[in-house]
Design goal:
By secondary structure, the protein is of the alpha+beta class. It has two domains: 6-102, no CATH class; 140-210. 60% of the residues lie in helices and 9% in strands. The chain is built from seven helices and four strands, in the order ααααααβαβββ.
């Protein structure tokens, strides 16, 4: 991948004072990609900003499908790779004593612009995307709990027909482990002349009673 400033590197240039590498890492930590503008590689500043923003959006979307904490590794891996990339580019310039020219005012504008754009995007995510994701996850959890309740009740009705049903804790040995893990309590109550009553309490605090 090439960027506009790469053309400058092909032209002979007099040695220039090296920007602070520590400051570059500092900027990259708080404003991912901004350190590249400090050393004159503004194309990679924009590139890494876009890459990391895209990774965070992908993780937010995938969190609707899976609650695996491994998803959080994607932005973290991208963050680490960005810092490694910055170190390698910095070393390349330092070895040659050549730094792409970039006016201090332009550097300040790029870094400040990154800050404000990041602030606005964060506000949009917090105000729109996060509530929608939480709502979708809550609905998915409710659907899963209702499915678990129906499965348990179907087992209860089979036992009732077989006359093996007893009042007390539910028989959950045929329920998948993933479903059992969401249950905090489950009890069956036999009723004279009527269908047995099933009461389930989930780890989320939601209670479901059937029928």
């Amino acid at each position: 991948m090439t960027f506009p400033e790469d053309a400058v590197l092909r032209r002979p240039a007099s040695p220039a004072k090296a920007p602070s590498q520590a400051l570059g890492f500092f900027l990259n930590f708080f404003l991912p990609g901004a350190g590249f503008s400090l050393i004159g590689r503004w194309g990679w500043h924009l590139g890494w900003f876009g890459i990391l923003a895209a990774l965070n959006v992908v993780v937010a979307i995938l969190s609707l499908i899976s609650s695996s904490p491994l998803l959080l590794l994607l932005p973290l891996i991208g963050f680490i790779v960005m810092h490694v990339h910055f170190a390698r580019i910095y070393d390349w310039h330092e070895e040659r004593g050549v730094w792409p020219p970039l006016e201090p005012v332009l550097k300040a504008v790029l870094i400040a612009g990154h800050f404000f754009v990041g602030f606005i995007l964060t506000g949009i995510l917090a105000a729109v995307l996060i509530p929608n994701l939480l709502g979708a996850r809550e609905r998915a959890m409710q659907v899963g709990e209702q499915a678990t309740a129906r499965n348990v009740y179907a087992r209860v009705m089979v036992q009732d027909v077989d006359e093996t049903l007893r009042s007390g804790p539910c028989d959950l040995h045929e329920l998948p482990e993933s479903s059992r893990a969401t249950l905090a309590a489950c009890t069956v109550e036999l009723r004279d002349g009527g269908e047995p009553a099933l009461n389930l309490t989930f780890d989320s605090g939601r209670q479901i009673s059937l029928p």
